[in-house]
Amino acid sequence: MTYQLDRETNITPAGRGRWRADVSPHWNIGENPNGGYVAALVLKSLLAEVPHPDPLSVTTHYLRPPRSGDANLEVEAVRAGRRTSNATGRLIQDERPRLLMLATFGDLSTAGDDRELTANPPPDLPPPNECVARASLEQGVHLPILDRVEAVVHPDIAQPGTLDEAEVRGWIRFGDGRPIDSLGLVLLADAFPPSVFTRFGRIGWVPTLELTVHVRRSPAPGWIKAHLVTTDLHNGLLIEDCRMWDENDRLVAQARQLALLNPAPA
Amino acid sequence: MTYQLDRETNITPAGRGRWRADVSPHWNIGENPNGGYVAALVLKSLLAEVPHPDPLSVTTHYLRPPRSGDANLEVEAVRAGRRTSNATGRLIQDERPRLLMLATFGDLSTAGDDRELTANPPPDLPPPNECVARASLEQGVHLPILDRVEAVVHPDIAQPGTLDEAEVRGWIRFGDGRPIDSLGLVLLADAFPPSVFTRFGRIGWVPTLELTVHVRRSPAPGWIKAHLVTTDLHNGLLIEDCRMWDENDRLVAQARQLALLNPAPA
């Protein structure tokens, strides 16, 4: 069986360091492909060129919104070491770069040092069946991605714009049961509603300028628990932090993004 | 007057998108140039090619340790928009890339939206003259950087390896009084001892694999207050978070790095 994500991030070789892809409309937020989905697509091309299986650190800069359809990917595998490797990549449409990526890869299954620090307890969150479907929160915007990703949020945030905190807590997984691997975590780090939504209400599209995801552990099967919070908004630019745990409460990824809060309607 | 940092990050043009630099030994940690210093040097070449004055988001990947002496810098200014621009760069020595950089630029002096979130209070910290010089903590390793950067830390961390938390709190500024601008913040985000030092004691060099700095505000004149903490160490890889405030307790930068904890001595 092929899962939706794998089919819809299929890439084909097009020469040295070059790949072709078809950006699917199935992961759209309104008219735009979701940023996490397009990052996963570009990441596939980097993974095809490095010797390590897992992204450890992935930084994506969003220059212009990508669109559905044909895209060219350009990859440079810059360094391959024993423990980690590094690569850069970009997505090009209409001869213009839309995304730039810089990533470090490794192998999460390598056993190693047993010194551990884990002062990142997961948030308080009722089980998924007592949470609220993300779909029920989004009147007016068509969200094809909700046929691909199942996301439920804490009942407290069902009314946008009513909380003092800019914070989202919820569960997430792929709709077709695809296991969540390191590539999947990079996508899911940008698949919740923006956390400023709970504080300011319907603020429209919050474009990501830059997203860095650190994958920390391979998740156990099942749902991913996520906590997204914005504690630093200034002059229309915000920092959103995202942490994700598996069902065993193990921290599996951390992410941070710089995003633009569009001007409030007059 | 020319400040030390500006003199020691001087770059000269060497063709389209190419610059030459001289990596100074004055910012070394032992035998290696400090990662923040080399990031600032590469950043200078990107700033020379983009229309905006301030780095907003700077990701640096450290592939191989740079060394003192001649270096080539290669820059690509990928996009110039009204509000932000994007560029990539790399530092090359002996024909091998040592650092890769991907950054977004803007203008911190632009006034804009007045919606604000600032749930990042600075840490408890006595005034600089009641803190302990970083120099007094580091027996045995030669730290030329301490002639360039003045760093003092909370008296509580004077004994490495004695705390449960992997945490450093301190003040920092340039030794020659150079005002701290957005470039300076990128350097200073990687100029304290690693926070795992307080938890595990003398653990040797903690090589940074990747560092992302978000510059949030232009600092007021004076010291920078910094808080560095590692809450996520697993399998020899750690995430360290750094936040910096100016003397008015305004959050001026956030940074996060992925670093390698070398194996414990047998």
How would you summarize the topology of this molecule?
The structure is a homodimer of 266-residue chains.
Chain A: H1 4-7, E1 11-13, E2 18-23, E3 28-29, E4 32-33, H2 35-47, E5 54-62, E6 69-80, E7 85-93, E8 96-106, E9 117-118, E10 132-133, E11 149-153, E12 167-174, H3 182-188, H4 196-200, E13 208-215, E14 224-234, E15 237-245, E16 251-260
Antiparallel strand pairs in A: 1-2, 2-6, 3-4, 5-8, 5-13, 6-7, 7-8, 10-11, 11-12, 12-14, 13-16, 14-15, 15-16
Helix pairs in contact in A: 2-3
How does this model look, in words?
The structure is a homodimer of 266-residue chains. Chain A is mainly beta. Chain A contains four helices and 16 strands. A 13-stranded antiparallel sheet of chain A has the order 1-2-6-7-8-5-13-16-15-14-12-11-10. In chain A, strands 3-4 form a two-stranded antiparallel ribbon. In chain A, β1 and β2 form a beta hairpin. In chain A, α2 runs antiparallel to α3. The radius of gyration of chain A is 18 Å and the shape is globular. At the A-B interface, β5, β8, β9, α4 and β13 of A face β5, β8, β9, α4 and β13 of B. β14 of chain A pairs antiparallel with β9 of chain B.
Summarize this structure briefly.
Chain A contains 4 helices and 16 strands. The first copy, chain A, is mostly beta strands. The longest helix of chain A is centred in the first third of the chain and has 13 residues, at about 35-45.
Which sequence of strands runs across the widest sheet of chain A? 1-2-6-7-8-5-13-16-15-14-12-11-10
Could you name the ranges of chain A where pLDDT drops below 50 across 5 or more consecutive residues? none
Oligomeric composition of the shown chains:
homodimer
Name the pair of protein chains with the most residues at their interface, and give those residue counts.
A-B, 57 and 57 residues
Tell the overall outline of chain A.
globular
User: Roughly what fraction of the amino acids of chain A lie in strands?
Assistant: 35-45%
User: How much is the radius of gyration of chain A in Å?
Assistant: 18 Å
End-to-end C-alpha gap of chain A: 51 Å
Structural class by secondary-structure content of chain A: mainly beta
User: What is the β-strand count of chain A?
Assistant: 16
- Mean residue pLDDT of chain A: 92
Helix content of chain A: 10-25%
Largest sheet composition of chain A: 13 strands, antiparallel
Run of helices and strands of chain A: HEEEEHEEEEEEEEHHEEEE
Number of helices of chain A: 4
